[in-house]
Amino acid sequence: MRTNVADMRNSDGTFPAYVWPGGYPVVYLTADGGVLCPDCANLAEREGLSGNPHDPQWNIVAYEIHFEGAPYYCDHCGVEVESAYGDPDAEA
User: Fold this and answer.
1) Is 87 helix (H, G, I), strand (E, B) or coil?
2) How many CB atoms are located within 10 Å of the residue 43 CB?
């Protein structure tokens, strides 16, 4: 988990779905421990919800580059964000 979310923004201020180099998927973590997909993280930014300490379900405080492991599910829209290398604990 990385907490310097400001460094993660694209030049237009949006949150990326993937990091470069490598094209690894990214998820965004909220103050209440929730997970947001990039689309919902950007929705929170557009709507002025992110950064509000009084609304922890939208307050984006960190991000994670999802290299390996089970998929994450967005707590807002439910979309699945798969890891770059899959889940080593999943049955083949």
Assistant:
1) coil
2) 16
